[in-house]
Amino acid sequence: MPFFSSNGIRYLRTYFFRQLSSLPKPSNLYHIPAKKRSKVIRLAQSALTDYFHSTRSLPFVYAEHIGKNSFYSLHDPISKVEVSLSTFAKSFERFLRYHPINEFEFFFESIGITQEEISGFLPPNKFFFAEDGRILNAAGALWSFGFPWNKLGILCKAEASIFNKDADDLSRRLCEFKSCGLNNVSVVGICLAFPFVLGGNGDLGVEARALFDDLKRVFVDSDLGSLVEENVNAWYEICRKIRLFYDLGCEKGKIGELMGKSRNIFLEYPEDVLVRKIDFFCRLNVRKADIGLLLLESPEILSFDLEAPVISVMGFLKHFGLGLQKSKSVARMYPYILGRNKMVNLPHVMRALDLHEWFFGMMRSGNHHLLGNYVLSHPDEDLDKDYIDGLQKIQSSKTPVHTINKLNFLHGIGFGENSLTMKVLEHVHGTSSELQERFDCLLHAGLEFSNLCTMIRFMAKILNQKPEILDRKVDFLIQEMGLSLQYLHVFPAYLCFNLENRIKPRYGFHAWLAENGLCATNYSLSSMIATSDKNFIARLYSIHPAIPKLWFEYYSHQKD
Q: How far apart are CA 167 and CA 177, in angstroms?
């Protein structure tokens, strides 16, 4: 039974909005009455087509494609011609004859390159196709084979060298692909999804051969090709889904048979569903290629609801067979993760517990069904009364939406529905997106996910600073102090002190004392920075009565 999807509707919608977004901005066409604009644009398109065909000697079909699909580029010349519907067509034709246009600009817009991107593709110091015929000839060869004209930009953006190729070489390459048992439509879909196969010089590269070996197994040997609707959009959509697995790192030439066995993945699930499922497992921070293999080996996972279900963290771990002693250890070490959460947050729950690799190992070893059949043991399982009370207070507060968004951020990084999470919530300030940005900043600095969550549990205020400030503090810790990120696990409050007015002066002064032999004690960083001003001065005095004077002399202008 042929595969029918919503491709046609999606294509028409995409095409319409692309055309609409490409239209000249009304603010630049004020001299044209609103009722006349669409008519003026159509007249300009027709005149441009005639210009390319009659004056510039382009084949009519090329001229028509460019004329009808270069709305934005038409905008500038239209704005320079006096508008009268009875004379506009001739006036515009005359303008084009005496005011040369950059033909490549119109061409690149017509194949789907946006106005913002066009400048990056224009050949330098060339305005006319006659100056460089390779680009138009290559486009002609591709269009003649079956590529939609307005999708050629996909190839151009991914592999610009394609349009510098000889047209005959491109045609031979495309015919070589057909020798795998594919037809023109399927080859077009494949090339749009994998433009690299048309790049390079000479013979087909190793990577491209490996890809087509896989695709032959999927489309020909497993007969998936007979189930795909016979149009470019359907094939392009199928191939984009296949590309998702290569983007994960699955090796070309090695997964064709596996994809063939799981061919229904590419028929039954829309691309956005596949992306969401892949993203779910990617958030476990495990090897991405293994995620691809998991979904190909166990495609039933794609039917699981991995977003809405509510989980009890301890109940879920028990369901997956975590031992009693390990469960007690988890409850003792990570009490702020316990309670309820949503399934969509499960990957970060597992990372916060440092159990993400264990969980993914269970999935790969054939226990994936446990993810699909998990349910709460009873409606009140793991309900936390203090959390419920806190939630009710939030809902009756002046800013419930803002606070709930912050709470959802905490749940999103693994914090459960418990009283400890509510206490952390009281100390974090900013929008949920700002908090996420700060969290990601520290994560990218090299802190382990689980350790970072523990730090937030004990010192939530570390999330109340801008990413650039956190970056500078981390950089000073590592580059200037010579300490590792591990030290932040012991002293997370370091990130809460002012770098210029507290950390640098005190650390620098202690370093100066040590270098000059005035202090034999090796004070810890927390002792240097977290000590109150009064106790800090008292310590300096105990080292030598004259030292506080030196401190005030050099650093009194710097305030905490």
A: 16
